[in-house]
Amino acid sequence: MGKNLKEAMKMLEDSQRRTEEENGKKLLSGDIPGPLQGRYENGCAYFHEEEREGLAKICRLAIHSRYEDFVVDGFNVLYNKTPVIYLSAAARPGLGQYLCNQLGLPFPCLCRVPCNTMFGSQHQMDVAFLEKLIKDDIERGRLPLLLVANAGTAAVGHTDKIGRLKELCEQYGIWLHVKGVNLATLALGYVSSSVLAATKCDSMTLTPGPWLGLPAVPAVTLYKHDDPALTLVAGLTSNKPTDKLRALPLWLSLQYLGLDGIVERIKHACQLSQRLQESLKKVNHVKILVEDELSSPVVVFRFFQELPGSDPGLNAIPAPNTAPSAVSQERHSCDALNRWLGEQLKQLVPASGLTVMDLEVEGTCVRFSPLTTAAVLGTRGEDVDQLVACIQSQLPVLTCTLQLREEFKQEVMGTAGLLYVDDPNWPGIGVVRYEHANDDKSSLKSDPEGEKIHAGLLKKLNELESDLTFKMGPEYKSMKSCIYIGMASDDIDVSELVETIAVTAREIEENSRLLENMTEVVRKGIQEAQVQLQKANEERLLEEGVLRQIPVVGSVLNWFSPVQASQKGRTFNLTAGSLESTEHTYVYKVQGSGVTPPQTPSGARTKQRLPGQKPFKRSLRGSDAVSETSSVSHIEDLEKIEHLSGGQDASEANSPERHPGVPTPPEAEQTGALQDRAQRLEDDCPQVEEPESLR
C-alpha cells in the first residue's frame, strides 16, 4: 500500500511539474516546493478507520524497536525498565487511556507535559519542563519511549515547537509522533516553519477525510522505519487483501479531485480563517486566542468584559486589587454569555460550523474550524461576513445584560419576599424565587404551592408584552421553582422589574389564600344550610299535622282548610360569610344589600408610562423626551389648578366673606398664577369653531 501511495504521489508531482513548465514558471531558491513534493520522503503508510489506531501501532513499533527481548520475554522486560509515553496537556481527552488499553500498559507509563505558563502560547508544550521530566525519568531507571506533539491542538489549533522537540528527541533517543489539523497546510505552497518541521518527525497521522469533505476516506499514518519484520509484528503491514483495499477510497478520491482540487479546498479553508480573524480584530469586546498563529486554520474567540484596573490585552489576568470572588463571578457570567452567543450564532449562520467548547484557562469559547467543516457545509466568504455582522449585533445585548446583573442582584436582595438564586449556567439577567408564607427554606424538595404561585407569576409577566423573556424551571441545586429572566436588549428599569415581580407574586399568593378560605367558608355554610333546612322541614310537619301528610286525606283536608305556607330558603353571603333567610327576598321582591367586597391588593406604586412605551423601560432622554415631559407637566398643572380651585371654592363657601384689607394668602396667589398659565396655554392652542346651532 505504501508503494501504491508513492505512485499516486509521483503522478501528482509529475502533473504539477508539467503545469509549471507550460506556464514558464520557475521556483526560486528560497521558495518551499509545491504540494506533496519532497514533504515526507522514504516513508511508509498505514491506513486505518480509527484516528487513534495508527498511533497505537506506532507505540507498539517503538516498543519492539527499543526492547530487543520484548518478543521473547514479553512484559518482564517492561517491568525492569518501564517505558514512558509523553503527552501534552492540550492533547485530545482520553488519548492516553486509549493507548494504555491497546498496549496493555499501566497508567503510570503516561507522563502529562504541562503547557507554557509564563512565555509563549498557553496551549504549547513547555519544552524546558519536558526536558526536566525526561532527565528525572532516566535517573529513576525509566525509558523515555515516545513523544506525541501537536501540529494544531484539538481545542484551539496551536502548534508545538516541533523543531525544538525534534532536537530533544534525537538527543535522548525518543520517537517523535506529530498529529493535528495544521498538517493539512503542508499541501500549500507556503507553510509556516513550525508546521514544516513536522516533516522531519518519525511518524505523523493525517485525516484527509474531514479536510476534503470525504466521509468514507480512511486516516493515514506515515512512518519511517527500515525493518519490515518489526513493522509486521507491530501490525503496520499486512498480507491480507482486505487490509490492502483500505487505501482504495483515498486513492480514488485523490484521483478524482486532482492536485488543484486538493490544494484549492485546503487553501479556501485557510482563507476563511484569515478573513474571520482579520474582521474580529476590529470588533470590541471580542478576544481572539490564536493571534500569534498567522497560518492556523482555526480561529477561537470569546466575548469578554474588561475588569476594573485590568489590562484589555490580558483579560484573563485580573487586577491585583480585584477580589477572587469577583473574578470568579465575572468568569462564570462571561462563560454563560459565551455559551449563549455560540448557540445563537450557530442558529443564525448554520453554514459556519461553529462549536462551543470549554477551556481550562480561558473558559467557554467559540471555535471556527473551516478545514473540518467548510467542505461539507459549503462555507463561503459571505457566510464569514454574515457571522461577523451577527456578532456585532449581539454585542449590545451581551454588554447590557452583564451590566444589569449586579444591579438586579442588589435589588432582589433588598426586596422582602424575594430570594436571589445564583445560577452560573443562566445567561440572562438573573434568577429569582418568591418565598411564600409556608415555604420551607431548609428543604430542597419540590414545593407544590410555590410551583402554583410561580406558574401564575410567569403567566402574568408574559402578559405584560415586554422585551424580556421569562421562563420557569427548577432552582439550581434544588427542585424548587424559580423565574428565569432572559437577556436584556435595552436599558431596563431593574427596580420596576423587581417590584413588579414581588407585587404580582404577593397578589397571587393572597388571592389563592382568599380562595382557599372562601372554599372552606362555603363548605361550612352549605352544611349549616342543610341542617337549618332539615330543621325547618321538621317544624313544618309538626305544624301541619300527620293527617295532611296522607296523600288522599291531606288533599281533601287542604281543600277545606288550606295552609298558608310561606316560601323559606337560605342564601349565603360570600362577602360576610353568613347564612340569611330568603323570606325578605320573596316578600319584598328585592335582594338584601351585602357588605362591599374588599379591594384587590395592588402594588405600592404604579409607574406612569408614555403611550407606546413598553414595560420595564427607563425614561427616555433627549429632545423628544423633553417635549413629552413638558406636555405632561402642563397636564399636571391643569389638574393642580382644578384641585386648588375646588378646595378654594369649598373654603369660600364655608368661611365668612373676606374684607378688602385682609391680605391674600400665598395659596390664592399660587392658584392665580397657575390659572394665568393655564389661560395662556388655552390661548396658544387652536380654537375649534362652534356650529351656528350651538351658538
From TrEMBL:
Residues 592-695 are annotated as: Disordered. GO terms for molecular function: carboxy-lyase activity; pyridoxal phosphate binding. Residues 296-402 form the PDXDC1/PDXD2 second domain. This is Pyridoxal-dependent decarboxylase domain-containing protein 1. The keyword Oxidoreductase does not apply. Residues 684-695 have a biased composition (Acidic residues). It comes from the Eukaryota. The lineage of its organism: Eukaryota, Metazoa, Chordata, Craniata, Vertebrata. Residues 593-605 have a biased composition (Polar residues). GO terms for biological process: carboxylic acid metabolic process. Keywords: Decarboxylase, Lyase, Pyridoxal phosphate. Residues 634-643 have a biased composition (Basic and acidic residues). Belongs to the group II decarboxylase family. Coiled coil: none annotated. Its cofactor is pyridoxal 5'-phosphate. Residues 408-513 form the PDXDC1-like third domain.
